[in-house]
Write a structure and sequence with these properties.
There is one protein chain. The protein has about 300 residues and is of the alpha+beta class. It folds into two domains: about 140 residues, Immunoglobulin-like (Sandwich); about 100 residues, no CATH class. It is about 20% helix and about 25% strand. The strands form three sheets. A ten-stranded antiparallel beta sheet has the order 2-1-12-11-7-8-10-5-4-3, with no helix packed on it.
Length: about 300
């Protein structure tokens, strides 16, 4: 009898061990699912108005440079930084359509010679999706070494003259490296300084009533009209870089346009746009002591 009890007890013991083992296996915790990582992205702010892209010669690496302020060029053009300010160029665009690109060094006062090479610029009016290619020919300046040039010259088509432009030069070689250069002739800061046009009734009162140094004879000489009426249909453009001897606008000191001429105190004054005429006539009537003669509004050195 005792032997049966021992066997039975041993059987119970092994059964208990087996049950405990199975229970332990079934109670293991399930692995916790890991949520996918969230990648934070920071928006990149594009540099305003003027950017240049420089690329290594193999074309694999491109760098976009933010622009810091540059003074107007010595030829009255736009200074363009190239390759993190490693080099510069001065773009000079004349009202006649002449387009000159003058090569400068890291120091903007130093001339930079580059290899004589064909250069193509792609030009489009602001807001126009289509660009037009123009050729810029190497025209060495006095002192340039043989097979080197510090100047490229081209001609803008008639339809681009006097307009605000976007210009891209996709391939310019300097000291064995290739650079992509882009610039715009728009000057946003200047646009913000333009005086606003007057409401119609205020404009009539301003132009058709005499006061201060603005006389009845002036009103008659201007055709008995407001600036809006006289200059209807004309488009203004603002040249920020007048040259020595140029007539300048009395209000903004930008290059004046003879199309926007107004008689005040019996004298002819030239302006850059009709709102500046508003401003000057207001000054003639309310602050006549601040007026100067037309000869005082000529660009000097």
């Amino acid at each position: 009898m005792k032997s049966y009890l021992v066997v039975f007890s041993a059987g119970l013991l092994w059964t208990s061990v087996l049950l405990l083992t199975l229970a332990g296996c079934s109670s293991e915790s399930q692995p916790t699912a890991v949520a996918p990582a969230t990648v934070a992205t920071t928006p990149v702010t594009s540099p305003a108005v003027l950017t240049t892209n420089s690329a290594a010669e193999d074309g694999e690496k491109a760098v976009t440079d933010e622009v810091h302020p540059h003074k107007p060029g010595s030829h009255g053009g736009i200074i363009i930084p190239i390759g993190s300010d490693s080099y510069h160029a001065e773009a000079v665009i004349e009202t006649s359509g002449d387009f000159r690109l003058l090569m400068l060094g890291k120091d903007e006062t130093r001339i930079q010679e580059v290899d004589v090479q064909p250069v193509k610029a792609y030009v489009k009016a602001i807001g126009d999706p289509n660009s037009t290619p123009i050729e810029l020919a190497a025209v060495p300046q006095d002192g340039d070494a043989p097979d080197k040039t510090s100047q490229f010259v081209g001609q803008l088509p008639e339809e681009f003259r006097g307009k605000q432009l976007d210009v891209t030069i996709p391939n310019l070689r300097i000291a064995g490296e290739r650079f992509r250069v882009g610039f715009t002739t728009v000057t946003e800061a200047h646009a913000e300084e333009m005086p606003e046009s007057l409401p119609a009734e205020e404009e009539k009162k301003l132009y058709l009533t005499a006061g201060g140094k603005y006389t009845e004879a002036d009103i008659k000489a201007n055709g008995g009209m407001t600036a809006t009426q006289k200059f209807k249909g004309l488009t203004s453009s603002h040249n920020m870089f007048p040259k020595e001897g140029d007539q300048i606008c009395p209000v903004t000191k930008t290059k004046a346009n003879p199309k926007f001429t107004w008689i005040v105190d019996g004298k002819s004054y030239q302006f850059c746009c009709p709102p500046c005429v508003d401003e000057f006539v207001t000054m003639a009537k309310e602050r006549p002591e601040e007026m100067k003669t037309p000869d005082d509004y000529i660009k000097s050195k």
